[in-house]
Amino acid sequence: MKYETQKIAYQYFVAATLLFGLQVIFGLITGAKYVWDYDPLINFIPFNTSRAIHMNLLVIWLLIGFMGGTYYLVPEEAETDIYSPRLAAIQLYCFVAIGVAAIIGYLAGWSWGMPFLEQPTVLKFGIVIVALIFLFNIFMTMMKTKKWTVIQGVLLGGLVMLALLFLFGVFFVRNLSTQYYWWWWVIHLWVEGAWELVAGAIIAFILLKLTGVDRELVEKWLYVEVGLVLFTGIAGTGHHYYWIGTPKYWFWVGGIFSALEPLPILFMVIDTLRDVREKRIEIENRIPLYWAVGSAVMHFLGAGVWGFAHTLPQINKWTHGTQVTASHGHFAFFGAYVMINLTMIYFAVPRIRGVSLKGHGRSLVALRLMVFSIFFMVLALGIAGVVQSYLQRILGMDYLTTQDYMKLWYAVMWVSGWGVVTGVFIYIVDFFSMGKPSKITA
Ligand code: HEM
Ligand code: HEM
Ligand SMILES: [Fe+2]
């Protein structure tokens, strides 16, 4: 750590880590409702509520993690302290307060309704204000020295795009189809556009610092990836326009461009592996490197392969909105954004605390357990989804009868879910004990 104010990132990482734990517990609660017919929580936390809390916590902690990562990264790139660490702290407390208010609201039935964007309008305005404070602080920091690097540019571009797109989810539209049309501008263009830019910049920064490869090389690839992500990702939005009343040409546009989306992600994997191999200097802290490579591979599988599997209209016609979608949603979010956040945390926290991760094997236990269990979870959901597509969509069986045939796979999902939760808790213990000698060596 070079600048004192980078320390503010630590508070962000603590908040992200704790909310991550809560998020996966709500995953288990939601999953249990699929496995058993009897639901003792039905009057307090029905399925829709626990699902909303599970998914909102995911987005909140990932965004908090990205913000923390940004506060750590920008001072080093811009070579100056953060413009206002106080503003950064206030912004974090406001964001957490809004998150808590949203979740208490869901428990009381106060919800906007659209998945991921359930926050009532007042809270959405609050989120917009938090985003503005954050962008202002980051921009002012960059302006202090005006040392523009490609990494900074891509990061800022991604963050601005992220904030602007959220506005499409703030206003209520009466027609449900139109509302869903704009909803995708937030959801799809976030995860397949803006967030990819943020993740790309973070991974480029970490690889640069860890491996000591040439900046020009990393930045050149970042350019190519960003260009391709935007090109395929923006037109790829069409893979959500098949069944919502939009014109027929979206079958072609959506099908072709979204089928190309795995390419930039594949380039990112190749690029990461190349950077890691480039200079075989002795890297003391290899843990973030393992997370980075793991993320690159899981990102490609979850978003690229699992996404491709149902992106053509001929297939999506049958699988749309089934558990195939949920399988891909878990895989992609975990591989791309959960793992990138944990990579940043394992990179930054030892530097902030001034400790070494040498022989820090507990982190790898968490990594392996999480990856292994998520993989089983998404396989189970995927099979459940294929059973559902066949019985419900092709044979025309009704929804609830179909669910009965999927129970076995829900059970496999739930048991694997416990594996994920255990991995997350090992990570949480590890987070708070970074720097203390660990019994498990790498
Ligand atoms: C990291 C990147 C990605 C993440 C986090 C992600 C996440 C998600 C999530 C959560 C959904 C479900 C939304 C909902 O209906 O509630 C979804 C839907 C979908 N995703 Fe992705 N995705 C990513 C990348 C991709 C890519 C690269 C492709 C194509 C190659 C793709 C193809 C699809 C398709 C076709 C759907 C719609 C499924 C349906 O019709 O039900 N995704 N994605
Ligand atoms: C880091 C880990 C996790 C991530 C990134 C994650 C992410 C997600 C996402 C993106 C969705 C929305 C899917 C969609 O609309 O297509 C979702 C829903 C869900 N998650 Fe998770 N989740 C995680 C852990 C868990 C765990 C441990 C369980 C426990 C079994 C679980 C169970 C569920 C269930 C049952 C749903 C509702 C699916 C449906 O609507 O049918 N999740 N999760
Ligand atoms: Fe999409």
Q: What order do the helices and strands come in, and which of them pair?
A:
Elements: H1 8-35, H2 47-78, H3 85-107, H4 121-145, H5 150-166, H6 176-211, H7 215-236, H8 250-260, H9 262-278, H10 287-309, H11 313-319, H12 323-353, H13 362-394, H14 399-432
Helix pairs in contact: 1-2, 1-3, 1-14, 2-3, 2-4, 2-6, 2-12, 3-4, 4-5, 5-6, 6-7, 6-9, 6-12, 7-8, 7-9, 9-10, 10-12, 10-13, 12-13, 13-14
Bound molecules: protoporphyrin IX containing FE (2 copies) and fe (ii) ion (FE2).
The site of one protoporphyrin IX containing FE has 23 residues, from helix 1, helix 2, helix 12 and helix 14.
Structural class: mainly alpha
Q: What is the residue-averaged pLDDT?
A: 94
What is Rg? 21 Å
Biggest pleated sheet: none
CATH class of the largest domain: Mainly Alpha
Distance between the termini: 24 Å
Oligomeric status: single chain
How many domains in all? Answer: 2
Q: What are the distinct ligands in this entry?
A: protoporphyrin IX containing FE, fe (ii) ion
How does the overall form come out from the CA principal axes?
A: globular
Number of strands: 0
Provide the low-confidence segments as ranges: none
CATH homologous superfamily grouping of the largest domain: Cytochrome c oxidase-like, subunit I domain
Alpha plus pi helix count: 14
Helix and strand run: HHHHHHHHHHHHHH
